Amino acid sequence: MAINEYSGVVNAGDLPDKPAPMRTEGIVAWIRDNLFNGVFNSVLSLVALAFLLYTIPPALNWLVFSANWTGGADACRANPDAACWPFVTARWEQFLYGFYEKSERWRIDILLAILAFGIVWLAIEKMPLKKYMAIFMLVIFPVLAFYMMFGTESALKGIDSTLAAHAASGEFAPLDPLRKLLRIPFAAADLKTVETSQWGGFTLTLVIALSGIVASLPLGVLLALGRRSKMKIISLLSTIFIEFWRGIPLVAVLFMATIMFPLFLPKGVHFDQLLRAVIGVALFASAYMAEVVRGGLQAIDKGQYEGSMALGLPYTKMMRLIIMPQALKIVIPGIVNTFIGLFKDTTLVLIIALFDLLGIVQASIADPNWSIKSVPYTGYAFVAIVFWICCYAMAIYSRRIEEKLHTGHKR
Amino acid sequence: MQFLKTLGVTALFVASAGVAQAGETLDAVKAKGFVQCGVSQGLPGFSNPDDQGDWTGLDVDFCRAMAAAVLGDAEAVKFTPLSAKVRFTALTSGEVDVLSRNTTWTMSRDTDFGEFVGVNYYDGQGFMVPKSLGVASATELSGAAVCTNTGTTTELNVADYFRANKMDYTVVAFEKADEVVAAYDAGRCDVYTTDRSGLAAQRTKLSKPDDHVVLPEIISKEPLGPLVRHGDNEWGDIARWSLNCMINAEEMGVSSANVADMATSTNPAIKRLVGAEGDLGSKIGLDNAFCGNIIASVGNYAESYERNVGPDTPLKLERGVNALWSQGGVLYAAPMR
Amino acid sequence: MANNPTSSSGAASLWRDPDKRAILYQVIVVALIIWFVGSIISNTATNMEDRGLASGFGFLKTSAGFGIISTPLISYSEGSSYGVVFLVGLVNTIIMAFVGCVLALFLGFFVGIARLSKNWLVQKIATAYIELFRNVPLLLQILFWYSAVLKPLPGPRSLYEAGQKVSLSLNNRGLIFAEPIGQAGMGTVWWALLGGVILAFIVRWWAKHRQMKTGKQFPIFWTAVALIVAMPLVVYFVLGSPMDFVPAEMTRFALKGGVTIIPEFIALLLALVVYTAAFIAEIVRAGIQSVSHGQTEAASALGIKPNHRMRLVVVPQAMRVIVPPLTSQFLNLTKNSSLATAIAYPDLFSVFAGTTLNQTGQAVEIMAMTLAVYLTLSLLTSGFMNWYNSRIKLVER
Description:
The structure holds 3 protein chains of 3 kinds.
Chain A: H1 2-5, H2 26-35, H3 39-65, H4 73-78, H5 85-97, H6 105-123, H7 130-150, H8 153-168, H9 175-188, H10 201-227, H11 232-247, H12 250-264, H13 273-299, H14 302-310, H15 315-330, H16 332-345, H17 357-365, H18 374-405
Helix pairs in contact in A: 5-10, 5-17, 6-7, 8-9, 10-11, 10-13, 10-16, 10-17, 11-13, 12-13, 13-15, 13-16, 14-15, 16-18, 17-18
Chain B: H1 2-21, H2 25-32, E1 35-39, E2 48-49, E3 55-56, H3 58-71, E4 77-81, H4 87-92, E5 98-104, H5 107-112, E6 115-116, E7 121-123, E8 125-130, E9 144-149, H6 153-164, E10 169-174, H7 177-185, E11 191-195, H8 196-203, E12 212-214, E13 222-228, H9 233-252, H10 268-274, H11 280-283, H12 290-297, H13 301-308
Parallel strand pairs in B: 1-4, 1-5, 9-10, 9-11
Antiparallel strand pairs in B: 2-3, 5-13, 6-13, 7-13, 8-11, 8-12
Chain C: H1 10-16, H2 18-50, H3 82-114, H4 120-134, H5 138-150, H6 156-159, E1 165-166, E2 168-171, E3 174-177, E4 179-182, H7 186-214, H8 220-238, E5 243-246, E6 248-250, E7 255-256, E8 259-261, H9 263-290, H10 293-301, H11 306-336, H12 348-360, H13 363-392
Antiparallel strand pairs in C: 1-6, 2-3, 3-8, 4-5, 6-7
């Protein structure tokens, strides 16, 4: 009876088996959850998949699988429908050093080694003495690099004769000891002069980008301070300067640095073409740098300013000891991003006949011995890959710092 | 403070380096020990860096000839690659001592920018078309798209030519020769126009060079030659007679192979040429053997031609109008006496 | 400060009083700048005179003598003056900058949202897109797109017979379509279009007003479509289609007539849009992520539908973060369009600061005009974006 009484509620026999719950682990489940969780997403996934299948295999095939890796121009000529890497291997020294004198290339090697060492040191988080390393890389290294790259031979001659002339005329007699002092380190390592016209390749790309950034940093800080200054005229002038440089194309800047610079200077004064390009790049970058630094200054709490003023610190000390250390730290990602932009923009110097990496690759492509269909594409692909690796590495570094600084909420 | 001192000293150095460059070109060149020569950014046969970074070409040989004449060493020369746009500014501002960059000698350039010292290649603007177009003459090109270089006389000539013949055309003007070739090769244009030597040089870069034909018309005169700054006549003379030396040497049969024996030649003209007799060199402030030095280290014009643009090179250019006047060409150098 | 007894002596007071010191600094800076600018101007004048360089703007009236591939809106021939060349370059630059900015904005928004997609594949592709195109020099990308546009397209001669009429064609001479030529009556259609736009704005204002008061919604979007698109179309057909479409005709070499969008334009546009959109996408992502998650959750809790949640809650707040950096990207795109010179697109920098400069040698005047154009464009863009920014910015108590 009891059974009958509850027959409406309790099942008499076993229930039929329910289908097994959907797997929540493994590849199939992952694909379902992430790619096909709805009609729209499924369509999107299929379109994306088709796109990948259409682009990736041919690109990889051209770049890697059917590419020519060995042999010379003849091997590439026989197989012109794939990348021609022997072109790059045959010329890589030129791509790296440009037309820098062969017997003197060890100087670049040393500098690149120091640069790599310094960058790694600064990039690793827990390294000690970072501050001193940064000062070394930003102040001492550029001077060292200049003399190493250019050679001390004529630098010594130039300085020496100038100072000697002044000393002899009695104008600047106190400079004579300075002259003797300067002679000692240079005489110890009298390096052969390598004109800047012989600099080229990736080295030149680095020279322009690095000197541009090193020079634009202090200028940018000054401009940012100027723009935020309470002195109306200084603030106005800084703003005009910044907006002017941000408003004109870099091509125009470089163009003026080549064509018009001699016009602005008094007669008889010459500037090295590379130096002119670097000055142009540095001024251009300093405007962007100023805006980045200004962002950092604005982010500093007002209490910091008020606190340091209450302590009676004068303006320079307040900026140097309290504000700037905080502001510069938070704008490191911005500085790195500016540098990435500057680094990519160095390719534009080929317009003013400097052989940077892209310029030297373009010049090499013109060699009739390598007049093969695949060579220009290989050359450009090589440049693209080099730039991509450098810029992406910097972008990752910048993002890591950003994440470290970003302590707020996250989704 | 240390930084400021460095900066100050560097500024002094920059200023002093600038001042040192002013003055008579010959003295300046002798003082610095090399000739600064403006060349193209890469035009095969005329001035092109090879994979070792060494420059070769007809224009480059002229630079080397000047170095050999002035300093006795054909390697004592530094090259400044210049785009078509900046070449004249580089010369007038003193950045280069001589501009040897396949530059067409025109009146306005001769008066505005510098002094042409002669012609090292007689050229003319021509057209190249794909064979498949079935065009036999440039007069059939009405309605065609024309690829060319901007910043050259070529761009203006082509406009003049089509207008004079009342033909329609579309011009696609690129900054660099390589870009023109790539666009033409991709079918962007029906016609590629530039100097005929340039057509020959760039043709080697096409994917199928044999599918293209150069039309018979030559629509302009393009005497290409080196130039120096206005106002330094001695330096202009050196450039002019270095060029004439190479051409005269070919005419007299003096080459790098036999120049060493020519000092004892019985022909007084040859003896004067190589400096064994007379004082031609000292008239332009050089060693009397300046021409002998040129021939010994660079060769005569024929050698330079064959080495750089002649039939055995990828450019495969016959001498044609660039042959000596005695062989049906127009190459006619003033006598050296 | 002035009463301060310690600052009685002249020079010392000047130095100790911050206000006076500020004035002193500014006077020094201004004097330095006047000296600097003055010496540059005097050097330039002396140098130009010494080198016999012509000065003045008389060259603008000289005839140019060279051909230009694309001269929209302006009639140009080889006999036209350098002044017309300037206008042609200006128009080409403005068209490129405007179209580029609009397209880059759309693509950037699309990729930025895709970057946050829940679809793994889409999100990864968006990330790869951003990382790839952001980190390769633009000049290389322009060269790449130019050959990517030119290579696969067939030549017109392989497509058409001579004499054939063609209304629409995409070949390696560009995108060519029939040229619309308005006949009598077309003016009425244009007035109808203008009227439609004005009416749409009025309706929008009215609908907003009514919604504020009564909460009733009005289908603004569809009304606007009807007013702006349908109304002129009806007028157009009522008047008996007063527009002729003149097709291009195949000549021996290429299509003649019609409207041509040259491949250089397409390639440069693609390069600029793809490059800038990668940056905009990151800006959009950062903007959307900056909107507190609580906002999304609150919107969900209120029962707002997902796409409305994005459109009405997240995006308006994100815009405040997005707009300032977006302005810089628009400015960058405008400036980067000067790289056109690499692929023969006749923008201002290429035909005016390039060809004209090389022919006339009047560097100072030409560069001054060119820079003035770019600065004006920058100021206009910044001005517009600042106006927009002030409209959307958070209204605080």
